[in-house]
Amino acid sequence: MTTNAGSAPAASTAVASWRVLAGRGLKVAAFCLVIAVVLIALFGDAFGHAVVYSLCIGLSCWLFIDVGGDLIAPLLSMPDFGSDSVRAGWRGWIWMTVLVLVGATLGYATGNGIANFLTGEHQPGPFNASLRQLRTVLVLAFVPAVTMTYFLISREIIARQRAEVETAQRHAAEQQLKLLESQLEPHMLFNTLANLRVLIGIDATRAQAMLDRLIAFLRASLEGSRARTHPLAAEFERLRDYLALMQVRMGERLQTRLDLPAGLESAQVPPLLLQPLVENSIKHGLEPKVAGGRIEVSAAREGDALVLRVRDSGVGFDALAAGDGRYGLAHIRERLATLHGERARFEIVADDAPDGGTLATLRLPFSTDAPEPVAAPPSR
Amino acid sequence: MKARALIAEDEPLLAESLRGELAALWPALEIAATVGDGAAAVEAALALRPEVVFLDIRMPGMNGLEAAQALAEDWPEDVPFPLLVFVTAYDQYALQAFERAAVDYVLKPVQTARLAATVRRLQDALAAKATSPPAVELGDVVERLRGLLAPGSPAAAPRAEPLRVVQVGVGNAIHMVPIDDVLYFEAADKYVRVVTADREHLIRTSLRELLPRLDASRFWQIHRGTVVRADAIVSVERDESGRATLKTQGRPDRLVVSRLYAHRFKAM
């Protein structure tokens, strides 16, 4: 037997949890009462007789099929609790058929015996019935067993799938929030506001220009994830906003160069793709350096590829690898993979240049149309 | 009330603005210097010995907290320790710690009314200080800063597995130095010196990054730049001025124990 450590039910026990079992048992009992009503209506059975027999037989059939299946699954090589359907009780067509046939037969015999004991009657079970009586047994045991098994399993599969969708949605919302938090870093925001507050008093025109940059930056950060792609010119404009804000804060400690050659303005890139790289360069490369330094963003076309580079002369790659910049980098990888699959490349290395810090290189298919998305990789 | 202040703030506009606001709120306060990083702040403060120091928390190189630590370690005994005011844009975890460790803290953007309250607080503290002997007062500062630097503060989040081997790059080779062979680690600019009984290595990391990876019960910090393996300490001595130094096995050199960590060494 292979254990699947990733799924909690398998890690604890092969039997489904008590709460799940109790829930299924209640549903089976309710179904048994329906059968009892049918028996009373069709065959004119006595009320007490019908209820006792259908409950006893129904519940013991269920125990044999469901719990029995759980218990013998480890002994035989039945599919283990790995997938959702197996966790819901489904064990493949062959095993399910065997389980229902054997379980319903044994369950009928046991339940019938218990009911006989309780009522003092002597109803025949599957092993001591005449051929005509066996027909009733067949109808009363197998049809409900198959119906109920199908009903229980399909319902649980649906419930599990729904729970999974909800988890995925919650996860996506959390990711979105995390991204927003990483873009609107409080430290950056409050320091920018502090500078703005000072500028208002001493240079209103410059303050206004800075406020316009801040507005554009905030709008882009909040709306950034809605569009799949935007033109490279817009991407550079957003970087200009951000760097202008940082320029006011860092003064001479920050030198910037943005190089967007003619002809590449309309190349499509995911919005704010470069933003985390530039932010990392400043936060982990230049801000910790007393002398400050230089940051260069450039675009180039190499054959079919659009190559984007973010280079800084900061303290270097080690500090970045150890810092909290990893989330932003993982996010870039994820976005490129979703949009371009294997055709996009992203690497970040220590820059070889004499005053080099970090060099990030992005390589993605050159296109001036919004690209056809590659199917997202399966989530599991 | 006359006093001299030092401003350490890496953003030029903000430094200039703080200077201006202080001039309006406290005309008798002389700004002795304005510096842009932690190391410069320590140097300027030790040279100029101001009564008040405004320290930005996030500064390049040495940050505001480290600068405060360095000041507490190196400040001369016979001069009153300056009143510290931390200035920060956003530190959600540390505000309480700042409040305990400093006279006050101010959030950026600095608002005039809030700064006025800080100024009153500083003036009251300076007035009270004129009557208290400085030695007691430095001990008080040391006690407060110790709280800020103690394990459990957000700066010292524990990592999973303590380091067992120090991997030292030598040319194209990696030397594996067992952690039990290390006598002490010493900060050296951007590097850390790893000292064993017979050798010294340099690793390209900062002591700040290294510290959380060391077993704190075995490796004791004795100075902002020195971490010693406790088992390797032979003796600790104090000279006439109260300065403590220690000796490790097999090394002739004496390591300085700063007053922030001297409390660890008491006879049983």
Describe what this molecule looks like in 3D.
The complex is a heterodimer of chains A (380) and B (268). In chain A, strands 2-4-5-7-6 form a 5-stranded mixed β-sheet, with helices on one face. A two-stranded antiparallel ribbon of chain A has the order 1-3. In chain A, helix 7 packs antiparallel against helix 8. Chain A is 61% helix and 11% strand. Chain A is elongated and about 100 Å long. Chain A contains 12 helices and 7 strands. Chain A folds into 2 domains: 165 residues, no CATH class; 182 residues, Histidine kinase-like ATPase, C-terminal domain (Heat Shock Protein 90), CATH 3.30.565. Chain A is of the alpha+beta class and 380 residues long. With 268 residues, chain B is α/β, with parallel strands linked by helices. Chain B has 2 domains: 154 residues, 3-Layer(aba) Sandwich (Rossmann fold), CATH 3.40.50.2300; 100 residues, LytTr DNA-binding domain (OB fold (Dihydrolipoamide Acetyltransferase, E2P)), CATH 2.40.50.1020. Helix content of chain B is 30%, strand content 30%. In chain B, strand 13 and strand 14 form a beta hairpin. The radius of gyration of chain B is 20 Å and the shape is globular. The chains are: A alpha+beta (380), B alpha/beta (268). The interface between A and B is medium-sized, with 26 and 25 residues.
